[in-house]
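re: the backbone from monday

yeah here it is again, tokenized this time
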């Protein structure tokens, strides 16, 4: 929140310098997206604890979903000067039915962590259908990065609530 308030004030005070204002507003956008993500996570935890987390299936356009997520993560990757690659299986259907909001949330969590822990190299985001029949697909999302990685013995912690893996190294 401090970043949003601070960069907004800076942008307002530099209206004569369009490039500087644009830079500040991009930082406001990234900060506000991060804050929104934190708020959504807190709300989701509350819903999970109350047993009220609902899956809200809707018809959505997968390419728009991928574009939205990519547009949220790309500025962070560019700021760190790491390559950000997106690969989507051409055979993927464009229209899907499912919980687009939860899908975006999962994709964003994976991608933002990949960018966060990658100092140089690349992050590759791949979307494909692992299994498909006339009415259903199993959507497969893969994030591959050249970041610090996770020790094999720490992998189980990934699925434990409120756990951080290797906090000394991170």
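seq for it, each position gets an aa:
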């Amino acid at each position: 929140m401090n970043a949003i308030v601070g960069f907004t004030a800076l942008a307002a005070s530099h209206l004569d310098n369009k490039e500087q204002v644009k830079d500040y507003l991009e930082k406001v956008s990234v900060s506000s997206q991060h804050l929104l993500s934190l708020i959504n996570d807190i709300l989701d935890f509350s819903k999970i604890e109350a047993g009220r987390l609902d899956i809200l299936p809707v018809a959505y356009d997968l390419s728009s979903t991928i574009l939205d997520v990519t547009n949220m993560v790309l500025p962070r990757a560019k700021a760190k000067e790491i390559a950000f690659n997106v690969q989507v299986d051409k055979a993927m259907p464009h229209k899907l039915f499912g919980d687009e909001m939860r899908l975006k949330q999962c994709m964003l969590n994976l991608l933002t962590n990949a960018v966060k822990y990658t100092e140089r190299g690349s992050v590759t985001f791949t979307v494909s259908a692992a299994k498909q029949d006339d009415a259903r697909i199993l959507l497969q999302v893969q994030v591959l990065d050249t970041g610090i990685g996770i020790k094999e013995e720490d992998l189980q912690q990934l699925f434990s609530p409120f756990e951080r893996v290797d906090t000394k190294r991170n």
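The radius of gyration is 18 Å. The chain has a mean pLDDT of 84.
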